[in-house]
Amino acid sequence: MRSLDYAKVITKLVSFIQEKVEESNVKGVILGISGGVDSATVAYLAARAIGKEKVLGLVMPYHINRDVEDALLVCNNLGINYKVINIKSIVNEFEKNLDFELNNVSRGNIMSRTRMILLYAHANSKNYLVLGTSNRSEFLTGYFTKWGDSASDYAPLINLYKTEVWNIARILGVPNEIINKKPSAGLWEGQTDEKDLGITYKLLDEILYRLVDLKMKKENIARELNIPLNKVEYVESLIKKSEHKRKLPIGPEI
Amino acid sequence: MRSLDYAKVITKLVSFIQEKVEESNVKGVILGISGGVDSATVAYLAARAIGKEKVLGLVMPYHINRDVEDALLVCNNLGINYKVINIKSIVNEFEKNLDFELNNVSRGNIMSRTRMILLYAHANSKNYLVLGTSNRSEFLTGYFTKWGDSASDYAPLINLYKTEVWNIARILGVPNEIINKKPSAGLWEGQTDEKDLGITYKLLDEILYRLVDLKMKKENIARELNIPLNKVEYVESLIKKSEHKRKLPIGPEI
């Protein structure tokens, strides 16, 4: 992986948040706090950037599990304002209005988009910016819900790989139990990112960095990382299949 | 305004829809049908492009008014499949989970994003593409809900001005009562686009075309259209203020 001066990166992230808050002439920022490392990292950065009083965390569980405790741990450690809104009744209301069964992925998409709506309703009413918590590993592989968790005003971590976010989280003082737990989007019980993705973030980032940033040939990546070529081809296929998710809708040129 | 060969433009729009359906390996397209001219035009184009059996219209009222009849008129005229889902109970469920009052704009945003969620839930389950109905006049002035009505897979009309969509609608045979009625996003009773925008689409498009496409000087535009300079400056301000709405969320370069 690239070697980063993490102190400098953190300074850059903090000043980015400060600049956007000032430019947008808003009173603060709001973000969804899931209990995972990405949202915890953005919360720590935001509190450092503009002060805990101007940061509002929304804890929006569907399932009641340990993630909620971890989310509250982040909010209480930082001393930021927060609200807990269980989204089950809203997601159920969507389901009542559909005449077909939802599978886990579709229900997960509704959860993610429901959270986006709640974040923006609060942002509208408080004149806040919505901070996204997406990282580069998710963005490049399409491991997010289109117009859901990827929909925000600014996404401070969007150019940082997951393994780099872990390092930043440690430096910022995010609690270890959050850093060390298996990453999960929490869209269904027992879900983990790495099971979904079919690869560990550690290996995924090593491949993504060489494939996308360094533009290395697949064969050289496989040789350098001492892994089968099909692992690199698999990651390449994730990038290609999710291309449409990284673009605003287009129409024909007139 | 630019002079367009509308027969050619319609052919381009139809083949664009055909191409994207084929490329994406989907079984059809779905779109929200509001009773307005934009969604009616996209419905007519889609039915022409891939056949009425592969087009699903979702009529998603919040208010029960004439727009619903107009939406059903479009669906029945075309013979496409459609469903009517009243979104009030879903929007109410969002409101129940908020501890503050919504104003019209915020409630309108929730309506628009709720419709996006319903469209994508159906698209997921049927392996359909979501067609957006945004036009260039809305896109350039930011007259849409971010991650709401602007959120789709493809937006056939995105490069056509509203006044041009009217012309296309006439050629396609969209009913006159839909073409001739005052455009409205229907987000609250009595709302009209032109009241919100503070300018008629006719004048707005003439200014937008010169300002954005021809990159004319404001003073020359005012002189050419024989309008006060502040009208041009007003349109310019709409474009500037809405710039963030035409971009995916960014983060700092690392």
Q: Detail the poorly predicted runs of chain A.
A: none
Our count of domains of chain A comes out at 2
Strand fraction of chain A: 5-15%
CATH class of the largest domain in chain A: Alpha Beta
Distance between the termini of chain A: 43 Å
Kindly report the greatest chain-chain contact and the residue count on each side.
A-B, 61 and 61 residues
CATH architecture of the largest domain in chain A: 3-Layer(aba) Sandwich
Q: Tell me roughly what share of residues is in helical segments of chain A.
A: 40-55%
The rounded Rg of chain A comes to 18 Å
Return the structural class of chain A.
alpha/beta
Total of DSSP H or I helical runs spanning 4+ residues of chain A? 12
Name the overall outline of chain A: globular
Largest beta-sheet details of chain A: 4 strands, parallel
Strand order of the largest sheet of chain A: 3-2-1-4
Briefly note the CATH topology name of the largest domain in chain A: Rossmann fold
Whole-number average pLDDT of chain A? 96
| Secondary structure tally: strands of chain A | 4
CATH superfamily of the largest domain in chain A: HUPs
Enzyme class (chains A, B): ligase
Protein name (chains A, B): NH(3)-dependent NAD(+) synthetase
Pathway (chains A, B): Cofactor biosynthesis; NAD(+) biosynthesis; NAD(+) from deamido-NAD(+) (ammonia route): step 1/1
Subunit structure (chains A, B): Homodimer.
Brief summary of the model shown:
With 254 residues, chain A is α/β, with parallel strands linked by helices. Chain A has twelve helices and four strands. Chains A, B: Pathway: Cofactor biosynthesis; NAD(+) biosynthesis; NAD(+) from deamido-NAD(+) (ammonia route): step 1/1.
